Amino acid sequence: MPDLKVLILGGTAEASQLAASVLGRHGERIDLVSSFAGRVEALRPPPGRIRIGGFGGAEGLQRYLMSERIDLVIDATHPFARQMSRNAREAADRTGIPRLVLWRLPWPRHPLDRWIEVDGLEAAALALARLGRRVWLTVGAAELAPFAALPDRWYLVRLIEAKAPLPLADCTVIEARGPFPLENERALIRRHRIDVLVSKASGGDATYAKIEAAREADLPVVMVRRPLPEPGERVESVADAADWISARL
User: In DSSP terms, which residues pair with 172 in a beta bridge?
Assistant: First the structure.
């Protein structure tokens, strides 16, 4: 019989690392469930049990927490998964279940970075109107629509999976999963003659090389600012999150 039942709201590298760390430390003392939204079919499942699909908002997540007798909730979602993080906070508050946010550190801005920081994808598309015409878009398949209306733009789009036709008239799609080495990103910029990068300020190591490569090539980067984290207890490393769980055994 496990001592704790833990739900990790995941889909990130940090979530998978945390699952491996916690089960490596405590084994059968922890019943660990990692939840994925299900947007990507080719998952790399972490150790422990897996749940795929939405909960049905904060109310659905609240019902799940109660019916499954969850003891701890770890919000290790992507920094831009604003709605899921809000649902996690509301559901945990209503049930009284302790919740921890594993908050990925943002990328530091280098003095040579040419960032144009904007609030949202619509603002990013507007910023492109005065920048280059060969655009490397790294914002996710569901977030491309604001860029479709821009005339005379060619896009390089890199996705983990391309499930459906994209709304962009002139684009090349690359299917790949990070982490991406710096030389790979340099080569993409040279091969496709990229003159502007669009990125969300996601942070983390897996995709930072594109920022370094853009800096080396003196390219402008339209950077979508990340939302603020939901209120509540927060740590910034997998090790600290694992310690937080261990302290509750």
Answer: 156
Cβ atoms of 200 and 225 within 8 Å: the answer is: no
Half-sphere exposure of 205 (CA within 13 A, CB side): 5
The amino acid at residue 161 is E
Percentage helix, strand, coil, to 5, in the chain?
35, 25, 45
Strand partners, 99: 73
pLDDT value at 43 more than 70: no
The residue with tokens 């910023």 is: 127
Return the SS3 of 49. strand
Q: Say how many CA atoms lie within 13 Å of 19 toward its Cβ.
A: 24
CA neighbor of 140 nearest in space, from 81, 95, 90, 97: 81
pLDDT in tens, 205-240: 889 999 999 999 999 999 999 999 999 999 999 999
Position 220, amino acid: P
Domains in the chain, please, with CATH?
4-104+228-246 (3.40.50.720), 114-224 (3.40.50.150)
> In Å, how far are 12, 200, 203 from 171, measured between CA atoms?
27, 19, 26
User: How many CB atoms are closer than 10 A to CB 223?
Assistant: 22
Q: 139-150 burial, b if ≥16 CB within 10 A, otherwise e?
A: bbbebbebbeeb
Give the position of tokens 């300020």.
201
Local structure of residue 167 (DSSP, 8 states): S
Q: Find, among 166, 148, 219, the residue nearest to 189 by Cα.
A: 219
CB 211 within 8 A of CB 200: no
